[in-house]
Write a structure and sequence with these properties.
The chain is an alpha/beta fold. Helix content is about 25%, strand content about 25%. The relative contact order is 0.16. Belongs to the zinc-containing alcohol dehydrogenase family.
Length: about 350
Amino acid sequence: MGSLKVEKTAIGWAARDPSGVLSPYTYTLRNTGPDDVQVKILYCGLCHSDLHQVKNDLGMSNYPMVPGHEVVGEVVEVGPEVTKFKVGDIVGVGLLVGCCKTCRPCKQDIEQYCAKKIWNCNDVYTDGKPTQGGFANFMVVEQKFVVKIPDGMAPEQAAPLLCAGVTVYSPLNHFGYNQSGLRGGILGLGGVGHMGVKIAKAMGHHVTVISSSDKKRQEALDHLGADDYLVSSDNEKMQEAADSLDYIIDTVPVNHPLEPYLSLLKVDGKLILMGVINTPLQFVSPMVMLGRKSITGSFIGSMKETEEVLHFCKEKGVTSQIEMVKMDYINTAMERLEKNDVRYRFVVDVAGSKLDQ
C-alpha cells in the first residue's frame, strides 16, 4: 500500500467546453484519506446523462470535466479506517461520491435524495477539489460509495448496472413492483430501457416495450425477451392496450407528450419518469384524475439498492448488452449515443486503452 499523503496524477479524457469533445487531460487526485479507497479503473459505461453534462444541456457544467459514472475497477489502496474492502477487490462506483449523512434521506439510506449529495464528476468534494469521473485511469472514493462486484460477474457487464440497472431497480423496489404477475411498460429502448426489460422480466412481469417506431420490435421481443411491443403512433393498437399496464417506466431523455402513455395505465397506475429533460412536460389533468393515476419520478438508487441489484442480476443471470470501445473512440461513441445508435450501452475498456502511454 502506498503512502496516503502523496497526491497522485490521474490521466483522463475531459471536455473543455460545451462542444462536449473529450481529449486527454492530466490532473491530480486528492489524497487517499483514512476512509477512502483508491481504484484503478478497468471499465466505465457511457450514459446519456454524460452527454447532457459535457454539453452543458442543464446549464450547470464546469470545465474541464471528466465524465463517466458507471465505474468498475480494482482496489489498489485503502485508508486505515476502511473495513469493507481490501487491495485486489473488484468494485463499482456510481453517480454519487458524497452526502451529508445527517439529513432525513441520508438517515433513511436513500442518500441519492440528499440535498448536499456530491456527484462523481462536475462537482466539488468536501476538500475543495473538483470531482472527476470514470473516463480516467484512477479515482479516489469514500468507501460508503463503493460496492463490491459479486464474484463471478464479468466486470464489464457490471458497469451498466451501476446506473442504468439500479435506476430501474430502485422504483420497482420502492413502489412494490418487485412481485411477479404485474404488467409493466418500458417506454424507450436505450441503455436504461433495455435494463428495464431484463430486470422486470426477471421479476416475473409481463413486459410491453413502447417505442416511436417499429425498428426495434425484433430486438425487443426476440433478444431482450419482451412480451409485447407497441408503436406509439399506431393509434388503433394504443387504444386496444388502454388501461392494461400497472406501471410505465419512461426512459425517454427528450421532450415528449405524456397523454398517450397515461391512457395505457390501469387505475392507480404509475408513469415513472427517468429521462433527464430540460424543458417542461405537459398533460391535461383529467388524464390522471380519471383513473387516480400518478406521474412520479425516481433518481438512480441508494447504495443499498446498488448492492441489491448487483446480487439480483447475478442470481437471475441478468446481463446487459454492451458494445465495448476504447477511449480513443469516445467522441464517436458520444455522437452515436446522441443518435440512439447503440445496442444498448457503450462500455469503455479503460484499462485496455492504456491512458498512461
